[in-house]
Design goal:
single chain, about 600 residues, alpha+beta, 13-stranded mixed β-sheet, five-stranded antiparallel β-sheet, 16 helices
Length: about 600
């Protein structure tokens, strides 16, 4: 089909040009020509343009990701190797496995040493994003739309290329593809990438083959890391917004059930400050415009919305829950309902059975929303609403509730299709139960890694259906790891995402004509106080452990160094924001937009 992308490409690199052509090459095939001197990207038609000699290398690639400008000039991003995830609806889905970043320039001699360092920092940012699991694509299927959305489009929609018709909300290389997208003849050489999670698995149920597909699409419109990216922006885009679609294929029939998650759509922050859990702060401004834009988009896409709000209704999270509920009521959304459920309070002391309280509250909407169903190629019914789930991070508590709703949908669909008998449940089939739990637990872990840098908490409940002490200990480890990453690594990760998605564009004059934002100017406090803290802690430990007996002199030394440790630690905590790894590309002068 003319609207599909090439499945295999060859890249020919010479000193002056880069050529990309389809593996199956005929006399009338078009190919990409990149001039490494002028930076021009054109379409070639004459095979004689591609030299047989003077080649630096010739390699096979899966597709083109796009082009991005660094200080040294343009860089070409390629998918070198992809892993086959599986096939559904007669389309093959791939996971990016290896990539390459190729400079148009033959050397960096035109840059100063300082510029070369900054340029390498930008390359490392690209690496940071591209190595964050996982990126997916298909040469024939539009992964940016859910099944119902795809099937409601007119026939001419499918005559467009995958690049032209992709939903930019879920495409992570949309900015990188700008050059290729502007030339229709180049569309077949590249693919739209989604970031999130995809699983495609087969399982036998009552001697019948069932295929379970799970697709999570992470929004590219408000990218970020756990504590640097909260709430909503002025365009109504919520942080950590993910659309998750559960698809079931059976005997040629197919169903789809969509849920979404996203940060509480208000202007609020929770910037890291070295404390274990910084208090969230609600901005004292008008939230209604952004709030309205957010739900206008959801209603347009899904019709009705139930907001399952799992944050604590007491303590530091209470103000957010109250403001969320008040805005839903005061702005008069007829298609939006707010359902508050204090997860930690209701399920305290491992009382997980109390999730049934929430399920009972949602029963009517579960019936009314339904799911998309296609029988014998014809649409039988549509999903008429969506559950929008959030906790403070939209990770751990959210994973549990989304998995619970997905289980109910799975049972309803399999009964409708005849794979399950009327009173049978997923739990009655061990292989199906095992697959369902692990797929949803894997989904929760990957979505969590993408946002927080670690696997999900409470994943033992999603994976096994019950909470245990091993899971609690694992949560403790992940919580500690989150603390370290959120405070000392995530500034760089936030910058990397903003750079990759085009929220910050590099100027070739950085580090020469003007100061680069990557230039760090640390004052004496940044180095002296941590050094003093380390020295005082070592001295305190030594004076506590080594003396065979404590003399007055030893006790005075111990008191001095112990006090020095406490005072220095207190000063560092009071200046916590200065010691955190803060982003520098887009957030330095932005009070609430991230």
């Amino acid at each position: 089909m003319t609207n599909e992308s090439y499945e295999n490409l060859m890249l020919v690199e010479t000193v002056e040009k880069i050529y990309i052509h389809p593996t199956q090459f005929s006399s009338n095939s078009k190919f990409v020509v990149i001039n490494r001197i002028t930076d021009e990207i054109t379409v070639g038609t004459d095979l004689k343009q591609i030299p047989d000699g003077g080649r630096i290398r010739t390699i096979c690639i899966a597709s083109v990701i796009g082009v991005i400008n660094l200080i040294a000039g343009p860089y070409l991003l390629l998918i070198k190797i992809a892993t086959r995830v599986g096939e559904f609806n007669k389309h093959v889905i791939w996971q990016m496995n290896q990539y390459e970043i190729v400079s148009f320039r033959k050397s960096l001699l035109h840059l100063s040493e300082k510029q070369r360092q900054f340029n390498q920092s930008y390359v490392e940012m690209l690496d940071s994003v591209l190595t964050t699991p996982y990126f997916y694509f298909s040469h024939t299927y539009d992964l940016s739309h859910n099944l119902q959305s795809l099937n409601y489009n007119a026939p001419d929609f499918f005559q467009q290329s995958l690049v032209a018709r992709a939903d930019e909300k879920y495409i992570w290389n949309a900015t990188l593809l700008e050059t290729f997208a502007s030339k229709p003849d180049l569309h077949k050489f590249c693919v739209p990438l989604i970031h999130g999670f995809i699983s495609i698995s087969d399982v036998d149920v009552n001697r019948k083959r069932v295929k379970l597909i799970l697709i999570s699409r992470r929004s590219s419109k408000r990218p970020g890391t756990r504590l640097f990216c909260r709430g909503v922006d002025s365009d109504g885009n919520a942080s950590n917004f993910v659309e998750t679609e559960q698809i079931i294929e059976y005997d040629g029939e197919i169903s789809s059930f969509v849920q979404v998650r996203g940060s509480i759509p208000l202007f609020w922050t929770q910037k890291p400050n070295l404390r274990y859990k910084p208090n969230p702060t609600l901005a004292p401004i008008n939230h209604s415009d952004a709030f309205t834009k957010h739900f206008d988009d959801l209603v347009l896409r899904y019709n009705r919305v139930v907001c399952i709000d799992l944050v604590n209704q007491s303590g530091s999270e209470a103000a957010l829950e109250k403001a969320f509920a008040q805005n839903v009521v005061s702005l008069g959304f007829s298609n939006v309902r707010h359902e508050a459920f204090d997860f930690h309070h209701e399920c305290a002391n491992m009382k997980w059975h109390r999730l049934d309280i929430l399920t009972n509250r949602l029963t009517n909407e579960l019936d009314e929303f339904g799911y998309y169903l296609q029988l014998r190629g014809q649409r039988q019914q549509s999903q008429d609403g969506v559950f929008r789930t959030n906790c403070i991070d939209c990770l751990d508590r959210t994973n549990v509730v989304q998995g619970m709703l997905a289980r109910l949908n799975l049972e309803r669909v399999l009964r409708r299709l005849g794979a399950l008998r009327e009173l049978e449940k997923v739990a009655d089939h061990s292989s199906l139960e095992y697959l369902f739990k692990n797929v949803w637990a894997d989904n929760g872990d990957i979505v969590s890694i993408e946002y927080s840098g670690t696997g999900a908490l409470k994943s033992d409940f999603t994976r096994t259906g019950k909470r245990n002490w091993i899971g609690i200990m694992n949560d403790g480890y992940n919580s500690g790891l989150r603390y370290l990453k959120n405070n000392f690594i995530d500034g760089h990760r936030q910058d990397a995402m903003d750079f990759f998605l085009g929220n910050y564009r590099v100027d070739g004059g950085e580090g020469a004509r003007f100061v680069s934002p990557l230039q760090k100017n640390r004052d004496w406090k940044f180095y002296a106080l941590p050094l003093l803290l380390i020295v005082s802690s070592i001295m305190t430990v030594m004076l506590t452990v080594t003396p065979s007996q404590y003399t007055t002199e030893n006790l005075l030394y111990l008191l001095f160094w112990g006090s020095m440790f406490a005072v220095t630690g207190g000063i560092i905590l009071s200046l916590g924001r200065e010691y955190v790894d803060n982003p520098v590309l887009t957030q330095a002068n932005d009070p609430h937009d991230h």
